[in-house]
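Model it.
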Amino acid sequence: MSEPEEPRAEPTDPRLQAGLEHLQRAAHEVIAASRALLDAAEDVVDDPRAARSLLDLFGSVATRTRRSPPHRDDDDPPVQRIPVS
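Modeled.
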């Protein structure tokens, strides 16, 4: 026979309750995102054309990220450091 479970204490601090609710919503979002990724992975496995489109998408993203940023003509750094005493 198993021991009876102790009753769970309800959070009394409203900030704690709000934090727990946010974490729960975030967990549901992670689960939904995971399901969407698994659905996309299943489409790629089932349809080679989907795999090709996905590779084309990744290729275009990679091409955009490889482009160098615009050249600055001035020698000033983009951030000015101001000493604070």
